[in-house]
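User: What would this chain look like folded?
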Amino acid sequence: MRLIRPLLFTVPVVLVLLACRQGIALDWDAVVYLSAADSFAETGKLIDLHGRELTTFAPGLPTLVGVLLKTGASFNAIGIAISVVAVTMTVVCTYVAAREVLESTLLSWIAVAVVGLSLSTVRVFAYLKTEALFTALVMLTLALCLWAIRTHRTPLWWLVSVAATITAATTVRYIGFTLIP
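Assistant: Here's the prediction, encoded as structure tokens.
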């Protein structure tokens, strides 16, 4: 079991890195996000590839990528870094949430394996899209809420943390606010 635990946290990251070995995956949405991110890095405005203000997509991801572009990092490096951080956060928060709900270490590790080793997880986190970042933020919000339920406490740091994660999640994905309790 000592070897399995670190593997369940690292294998999902390795799988995402392998899926991105030729670059972060792109689709139409990613092209819209990247064009807006490029515009934000150059002008401070979120303008899509057609020259229109970005209004139909959430501003969080292109703003984050735009800020990171200003550091000189490439789209590919930024996309892979976001994916690695998001999959790591999702897997860790899955474990924390499972421990709170299932109250079993073994079942918690099974939950981590199901989430972290699923083909869907690898596919979602290999794309530069909002789903990966949104999933990680929702899982963090869930873990924080479960902690508050268990401890019957909502200190100031908790309120600020939940407000920040919910705010970040809804700036990354508009539809997402309906999924947050």
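The longest helix spans residues 75-102. If you want, I can go into more detail on any region.
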